[in-house]
Amino acid sequence: MEIIRLKTKKLDERAHMPKYASETAAGMDLYALMDAPLIIHPGQTVMIHTGLAMEIPKGYAGFVYARSGLAVKQGLAPANKVGVVDSDYRGEIMIALYNHSDQDRVIEDGERAAQMVIAPVQHAWVVECDELSDTERGEGGFGSTGIK
Prior knowledge:
four-stranded antiparallel β-sheet
């Protein structure tokens, strides 16, 4: 496993540095930074502060995913499904947390609100063309490769 250096700046002295929950975890936990517990109503999206800024190395991006326990047990997950933090972004890492449940949920200061995976990214050279190669699937869309 390649380990990269992820420079992380606390924008608030109360911020919690991201942590991996286990030696082989793919994502590092991101912690909520707030002055008081926050109620998230059903169908509501709130912005959760982390109090952190990062210098993600060029050629990588940070991908913010739901924490499975929070999503399954509480119905709380990123509103944009996966947040993308580009390597040239230097602002605060924020989590747009959405309540999918039918009950009010509460996020506390210091709670693990999401997880971030640092992964390489590859740019593509986009080439306009008139024809694409044929495949067995062709233009078959959603569900076209499943059992019939």
